[in-house]
Amino acid sequence: MSVGGLGPGYRPEAWLGFPGAPAGRGVAGPGGAGGAGAPAGSGAATAEAGARRRPGFAADATLARVATGEQSIERGARGSGVVEVQRALLDLGYDLGGAGADGMFGLACQTAVADFQRRRGLAPSGYVDATTLGALETAARPDPRFDRARPLIGASVGPGQPNRTADVKAVQERLKDLGYYQGPVNGRFSNNVARSLNLFDAVVRGEGQVTRGKAAWDTSMKLDPGEDAERWLRARNGPRWEAMPRRGTGFVNDDRDAHGYGTSWLRETVERAGSPYTAYAAANPRAVQEIHINDASRRHGGDTIDHDTHETGLNLDVRLGRGNITHRSRSYDREATWASIRSFLDDGSVSRVLFNDPELLRRAEADPRYAGRLVACDGHDDHLHVEVVPPPIAER
Ligand SMILES: [Zn+2]
Fold first, then answer.
1. Ligand 1 mean position, distance from CA 52 (Å)
2. What mean pLDDT is reported for the chain?
3. Mean pLDDT value of segment 153-179
4. Is the dihedral of CA 46, 349, 268, 201 positive or negative?
5. For residue 12, how far is its CA from the centre of ligand 1 (angstroms)?
6. Measured between alpha carbons, how far is 132 from 137 in angstroms, rounded to an integer?
7. 52 and 147 Cβ atoms separated by less than 8 Å
8. pLDDT value of position 233
9. If you write DSSP's letter for every residue of 138-175 in order, what string do you get?
10. Domain ranges in the chain?
């Protein structure tokens, strides 16, 4: 798949990997009480991480008062407490403009706090109270098991590489945390590790297909210290491999043929896109009331028949309503389809939607927000194909 330029309205802050794990994992979602939710990584890590406070937060007198509810910090505030809040926001990938962590709570900081609150299911007040501070500390807490700022490995890992035991172990552990690897964490490089690594590598490069390392004799897939795939392994917003949810706000999952898995990036996209669609559905009671998502990827990603770009959990299909219809069918609802297309294209994570309705293609071309992003493609008369691209790395 071609990633190309990111569409207009691309918002990195909408893209943090925090909306909790999917239902069934036992991890609190964003709607939980302040402080709930897991850092990117496995649910199992949450309890361990709970023991470790963010050092700057623990040491700051102002933040101690915020934590007890004696005060809050808001626009116009200055000082070391503001610096700590800004550092946490920067660590989480929020944009504070050119000034960075300057200790002055300005408009950019207010906006970042409100975005953070929204992503955590809190009221977007734009100021930091005890609840927001708790959520911020939880989200930005260092992972006690490894240092996100340093390479996980000292030498390359891959077929024919040094594969030092500690390095392979670190890679196995992270791939396991992220859901790509189910084997033992024993420091031994195996085909199973290679397969997991190939899938992860394709995901973080935004490719719909696993290309490198596919054949056993292909040694091109190696993980080097400091390269992007290695940085993604320790990134705060690294893509987890997950079961796609069966339903959620504004969408339902029609998949019945074992393509029910994908990345957390794709899941979060669907969860966000469902909300604007519900607004359309509410205003149009005769329209299909939910986006009907279909094929994502197989249980362990990789090969799948007739679905070349469905190998890496970055793409999924959307049916045109409930039945098997095309854009030429009598029961085709063009406006509802357009609403669902816009719900996806308006999300910063989606690069393109493939679909062949000539009328909607014309409509998209006439709108600078969508021009070039709704694309005709063979075989896409009866469904939309949605492509998600990786967010910027939140490394620390
Ligand atoms: Zn497709």
1. 43
2. 82
3. 94
4. negative
5. 25
6. 9
7. no
8. 95
9. HHHPPPTTS-TTS-S-SS-BSTTS---HHHHHHHHHHH
10. 18-140, 165-234, 241-388
Nearest to 299 by CA among 268, 270, 259: 259
The rounded Å distance from CA 273 to ligand 1 centre is 17
275 Cα: distance to centroid of ligand 1 (angstroms) = 22
Sign of CA dihedral 181, 186, 189, 192: negative
* Interval between CA 381 and ligand 1 midpoint (Å): 11
Q: Residue with structure tokens 């995901």?
A: 203
* Of 52-66, 277-291, 375-389, minimum mean pLDDT range: 52-66
Q: How many CB atoms lie within 10 A of CB 185?
A: 17
User: What fold is seen in the domain 18-140?
Assistant: Muramoyl-pentapeptide Carboxypeptidase; domain 1 (1.10.101)
Distance CA 69, CA 175 (A): 39
pTM comes to: 0.70
- Least confident range from 22-36, 219-233, 358-372: namely 22-36
How far is the centre of ligand 1, averaged over its atoms, from the C-alpha of 315 (Å)? 7
Per-residue pLDDT band at 98 (split at 50, 70, 90): confident
pLDDT at 277: 94
How far does the centroid of ligand 1 lie from the alpha carbon of residue 271, in Å? 18
pLDDT more than 70, % of the chain: 82
C-beta separation of 239 from 203 below 8 A:
yes
Res. 183: pLDDT tops 60:
yes
360 or 24, greater pLDDT: 360
Q: What architecture does CATH give domain 241-388?
A: 2-Layer Sandwich (3.30)
Q: How far is the CA of 380 from the centre of ligand 1 (A)?
A: 8
